[in-house]
Amino acid sequence: MPETTNPLADLRGAVADAARELSGGDSRGSAPSFDRPPRPDFGDYSSNAALLVAGSLGEPPRAVAERLGALVRERLGSAVERVDVAGPGFLNLFMSDEWCRRVLSAALAAGETYGGGMVDRPERVLVEFVSANPTGPMHIGHARHAAYGDSLCRVLEFAGHEVEREFYVNDYGSQVRRFGESIRARARGEEPPEDGYRGEYVRELAERLPGAAERDVDELAEEGVRLMLEGMQRSLERFRVRFDRFFSERELHGREAVRHALDVLEEREHVYPHDGAVWLRSSTFGDDKDRVLIRSNGDWTYFAADIAYHDHKLERGYDRVIDVLGADHHGYVGRMQAAWQALGGKPGSLEIVIMQLVHLTERGQRAQMSKRQGEFVTLDDLVDDIGVDAARFFLLERSHDTPLDLDLARAREQSQENPVYYVQYAHARIASILRKAGEERVAEALSADWGERLHPSARALLKRLLELPEEVEQAAARRAPHRLTAYAHETAQSFSAFYRDCRVLGAAEEGGDEDFRIALSLLAKRVLARSLDLLGVEAPEQM
RNA sequence: GCGCCCGUAGCUCAGUGGAUAGAGCGCUGCCCUCCGGAGGCAGAAGUCGCAGGUUCGAAUCCUGCCGGGCGCGCCA
């Protein structure tokens, strides 16, 4: 069996093929499992294929497993040392050292692309995230959105999708006008209006805008928004978050896009007048109730503008549109999904990801989020405090749908207590070993004919490294970049164990193959670097 | 009241049908003639919220209940 850049997928395929052969081409039911068993005496990999086939064949699972095991052995040849039948009928595969050497070679041959491009059907994807109001600074919650959205995009891209990143700018409507009023009030040395913006940054804006005390409110608002956006872009850039487009709500209105969206909905007969207002019949598409688009006073609702934005997204022809929104918006999911379908969007092609809240803690104690009224711990404050690497890693450590406690004390720590440093340290340590070996020596090692008989720690490390393609695929498919924090940490641990048990330079002294161990270290370095890159965290050559 | 999310070790959480449920932190006890000790090893620690059900097999799927978070405007 020739090795590709995803050896695990090859093995999985071989088992699945054998199972299909045994069941006479019957490929109904779920795909056979293929995982790392919980105990070493269960082999390197195990599958429940026989249990599934036995079900459709109506035969005793263990007997089926024996036959299937023989087929798998035949297909895999020298790749496999032996195939055991265990428990109720699991197949346990014990891979040969020869297979280990072959797959290491194949993974290294893939170079920087190793682990990527595994997606079956590449899609054109639009991801909208952060979309912070330009009337205030970005706080800790936006930091989580930024880390998540950016990392998700990196993962989707690496997995093989074509991704566009978009930030929606709410630069229209009454809150923007209030923003302008607040700036002018500060410029005049007055208090902002009751429902205005009271933060210190408003005072600073007022100082930066010459003649603000006498200027038109809308003009001030526009200028203020522009300055705020510039600041946000700087902060995001520093946080290593890039956007392809800042999409202005104001331009949307300027382009009559809301009118257009309403025309589309009217044409599709999903709107109706009632009580002097115009409604969307969103209940047709699963929403709790119908929603107002035009109020009885003639104003568009916010929802109408959002529909226009999504109408625009729809017309741009993406295969998939992902909105990353805050927990406070989840009441809005049902109606937006309904509107999407009313506009003619395919059900399922719009995904709305809801982010849960972030709490800051210091050694477990809840840290104060709001310093004074109108002032928050901002993205910049966070980065100043713990740095980009720690901030991104910690913000990505948890699934997006679970609230996150970020322990600032732990994040500041530069020791094993801190998973970021632990992973980066492992990377730097490998870099140090390879540096010591020298470029020529490394190149030579890669093309050598390896004879290594693998130590269990080397085998465990290699198996860990082979999981990268599926980790990336899963992280992409499940919109779950947080999986990679765990994977990076586990990989660093596996390397540390290998480092402890197997000398790399001078391996011959203990009967090892230095060439093989250099090669394995190099793959470990690449996998760590790739995992960190997908998280937006740096992989230092030295620390 | 309705809807969504969550309930797994002391704490924070992984784990969307497989074998004896994992990790980090914390705790206890160890390890520096060694390529980076910014490291490593071992140990204690769990009725996977509760009760039924489906399945050869459930933390995972279904139903009900309990507990927590958030959301339910002709606001944005």
CATH class of the domain at 419-535: Mainly Alpha
Rg calculated over all Cα atoms: 28 Å
The largest sheet has its strands arranged as: 6-5-4-10-11
The DSSP helix count reads 20
Q: What is the CATH H-level superfamily of the domain at 419-535?
A: Isoleucyl-tRNA Synthetase, Domain 1
What do you see in this structure?
This protein is an alpha/beta fold and 543 residues long. The chain binds one RNA strand of 76 nucleotides through helix 2, strand 8, strand 9, helix 11 and strand 14.
Write the SSE topology.
Elements: H1 7-22, E1 45-47, H2 49-57, H3 61-76, E2 80-86, E3 90-95, H4 97-109, E4 124-128, H5 140-159, E5 162-169, H6 174-187, H7 200-208, H8 217-238, E6 245-248, H9 249-254, H10 257-267, E7 271-274, E8 277-280, E9 291-294, H11 302-315, E10 320-326, H12 333-342, E11 350-355, E12 358-362, E13 365-366, H13 379-395, E14 404-407, H14 408-412, H15 419-437, H16 439-447, H17 456-466, H18 468-477, H19 483-501, H20 514-535
Parallel strand pairs: 4-5, 4-10, 5-6, 10-11, 12-14
Antiparallel strand pairs: 1-3, 2-3, 7-8, 8-9, 12-13
Helix pairs in contact: 1-3, 2-3, 4-20, 5-13, 5-18, 6-7, 6-8, 10-11, 15-19, 15-20, 16-20, 17-19, 17-20, 19-20
The structure holds one RNA strand of 76 nucleotides.
